[in-house]
# Entry
Amino acid sequence: MDKRKFLKTSAAILAGNMLSRVSGFEATEPRTNWAGNLTYHAKNLYQPESVEEVQKIVKDCRTLKSLGARHSFNNIADNKENQISLSKMTHVEIDAKAQTVTVGAGIKYGQLAPIIDQHGFALHNLASLPHITVAGARSTATHGSGIKNGNLSTQVRGLELVTADGEIVKLSREHDPETFAGAVVDLGALGVVTKVTLAVQPTYQMRQVVYQNLSFNQVEKHLDDIFSAGYSVSLFTDWQNHKATQVWIKSKVVPGQKFEIAPEFYGATAAKVKLHPLAGHSAENCTDQLGIPGPWYERLPHFRMNFTPSSGAELQTEYLVPRARGWEAIRAVEQLRDAITPHLFITELRTIDADELWMSTAYKRPSLAIHFTWKPEWPQVQSVLPRIEAALTPFDARPHWAKLFTVPGSRMQALYERLPEFKALVKHYDPQGKFRNQYLSNTIFS
# Structure
């Protein structure tokens, strides 16, 4: 190849790379979410590396949806035309004096946690798996666990987003408290979030201990005491035999304090070996147990960053009810056990504290989360969900925004008292509906 032809070919390759990065590329193969139950419809996927590129993409697209780590089980991030992934925007800026960290919207918790830990900082909470992005978790009120812990969105202190006209808007809890409360859990409706600022705290060590076979009779009598037994507590059940098959208790290590594993916990017995929540699955995927101390980010999640979380091929649904009526809700679901169990991998019960974020599933109420990890049997699961939702209707159960549910939009809207103000906020930042999709139309604007 002569020099002129080489230069011409190189220029074409560079132009193609730029087109892929900035102007988007047509997806030639079907793209699915993490679990494989959803195939995205968007023809084009954009992968910018800077805020300026994001602005250009937003201006040029008629419709657009942000795509995180693809851990949503429904079409909240789907679009028939264009998606934008900020997976290349993963910068980290720590402000030790302010005790905050500002991150690019594409970073995952599993990437962020070791970095801030090396600088002596930690987050107050993490989800059960670290594979999700900070921005995606924030937008859907993904929550983590702990009777006194707010969900992951509550640690947000600031946002930078590109709105429908391509302009940059910066919001903070300190300077824009009212708008901020509406914008943190935004369901992807306000724009493309490019940066998130989180509160941090001094780093800490944790340990977790697992107990087996906790009678639901004890949960009925001691629900708050059981969920207060650690910094974060989860109960796992298959709904059979009126019991939780496992109890995971995560506690902060107190320097100098002697620690021994109690042989029993409300009649449940301490596990002698490391366990996976799903019987028959290798515990290698799970974070360390047996009371072994370790960094906060290697104990708060159930699953390790470099391993497939949970089952892999699965479906998920989750409903949050008032913790004050937690036992009633558990009992209502238990009545459906024989319809649920054949299609279920496991259910996790956990708590989360109340917050003031308008569209949060824990808005103004301490909550109990009832989480279902289903076998990949959507027709059967789809048929049982309305029965579960009907049983939980008396408790004003709020479905997790990013998981599977069949609750109609009219009911969803009735569950959020600040919805009219949220709609006004959406109209302000996105008057033409550039970021609206079928999901938002069905759940929020129907």
Remarks:
- The longest strand covers residues 205-215.
- The chain has three domains: 3-85, 92-202, 205-408.
- Residues 3-23 form the longest helix (21 residues).
- The CA atoms of residues 74 and 403 lie 6 Å apart.
